[in-house]
Amino acid sequence: MNRRPMGMADWIAKLDEFLRMADRDVLDHAGRVSQEQARLKAEAEYEKFRSARINAESDVERAFAAASKRVEQTAKALKKPRAPKGKG
Q1: 27-56: per-residue pLDDT in tens?
Q2: Contact 51, 61 (CB under 8 A)
Q3: SS3 track for 10-75
Q4: Cα–chain center distance at 51
C-alpha cells in the first residue's frame, strides 16, 4: 500500500517482529526435523486420511441403509399374523 518494495529479508524481519510482539518464540535455527522426515510423516498422515475417507460411508450409502432397514421392518410387520377378530 505504501508502494515500498519488500524483499524476503524484509518479510522475515516483519514476521519475527510480529511474533515477538505476540509474545511468541522466534525460531533461530533450522529445527530438528529433516526434510525427508517431514515428507515421510506427511505422506503417512495423508495415507491415513485417504484410507479413512475411502472407507467412510457416504451420505447416499447411509440413506440407503436407513431405507433398507425401514423396508425390512415394514415387511416383518406385514408378515406377523393378526389376532382373529372376535365376534361382537
Answers
A1: 888 889 999 999 999 999 999 999 999 999
A2: no
A3: HHHHHHHHHHHHCCCCCCCCCCCCCHHHHHHHHHHHHHHHHHHHHHCCCHHHHHHHHHHHHHHHHH
A4: 12
51 vs 18, 21, 48, 57, CA distance in Å?
39, 41, 5, 12
Residues, the chain, total?
A: 88
Cα 61 to its chain centre, rounded Å, is 19
Q: What is the pTM of this model?
A: 0.44
> 42: which 3 cell numbers?
506427511
CA distance 62 to 68: 10
pLDDT at 85 over 80: no
Q: Binning pLDDT at 50, 70 and 90, where does residue 82 land?
A: confident
> CA 88, CA 83: separation in Å to the nearest integer?
15
